[in-house]
Amino acid sequence: MTIPLISIVGKSNSGKTTLVEKLIPELVKRGYRVATIKHNKHGFDIDHEGKDSWRHKKAGACATVIACPTQVALIEDLERDLSLDEIRDNYIKNADVILAEGFKGNPFPKIEVHRAELQRELLCGKEDNLLAIASDSKPEIGVPCLDINDVKGIADLIVKNLLK
């Protein structure tokens, strides 16, 4: 079975990470195993100079796995940015739902985080598979608009549309 995926999208500093951070424990409390995918267009570094795994990559390994009794991490060279389905299908197991932060240009259902004080246009419309807006205002674009602080209501929407 394919793991359902929903993207939490929005402009910079709109509160995407905060919403994901609040949704995870709410969904876990309801008995769901939640995985997340965070997109960073600028790149990132989880390995540090001098560490054994860093030395393995520096020596030419195309992939390095770091493992301990409670965690595992894979550092793998890529030739291109992977799509959400590729990341889900190749790397995520044992989850009931995936919350992806970012990836606004994907075909999956989306919740857009919007703050009126930032005075920015919405990124998505109904045609972009926008499921709802989480906002401190009430933009009218033909999809439900939930209060940005109504984590239970947003979780209800995710459960109803993706997990039932």
Range of strand content: 15-25%
What CATH architecture label applies?
Answer: 3-Layer(aba) Sandwich
Strand order of the largest sheet: 2-5-1-6-7-8
CATH class: Alpha Beta
What is the typical, i.e. mean, pLDDT? 89
**Mass-distribution shape:** globular
Cα radius of gyration in angstroms: 18 Å
Structure class = alpha/beta
CATH superfamily: P-loop containing nucleotide triphosphate hydrolases
Give the beta-strand count: 8
Number of helices, counting only DSSP H or I runs of 4 residues or more: 4
Largest sheet: 6 strands, parallel
The span between the termini is 14 Å
State the CATH topology: Rossmann fold
What is this structure, in a nutshell?
The chain is of the alpha/beta class. It has four helices and eight strands.
Description:
The protein has helices at residues 16-29, 52-58, 84-91, 151-163; strands at residues 5-9, 34-38, 63-67, 72-76, 97-101, 110-114, 130-135, 145-147. The longest helix has 14 residues, at 16-29. Strand 3 (63-67) and strand 4 form a beta hairpin. The mean pLDDT is 89. The chain has one domain: 3-Layer(aba) Sandwich (Rossmann fold). Helix 1 crosses helix 4. 26% of the residues lie in helices and 24% in strands. A six-stranded parallel sheet has the order 2-5-1-6-7-8, with helices on both faces. With 164 residues, the protein is of the alpha/beta class.
List the helices and strands and how they pair.
Layout: E1 5-9, H1 16-29, E2 34-38, H2 52-58, E3 63-67, E4 72-76, H3 84-91, E5 97-101, E6 110-114, E7 130-135, E8 145-147, H4 151-163
Parallel strand pairs: 1-5, 1-6, 2-5, 6-7, 7-8
Antiparallel strand pairs: 3-4
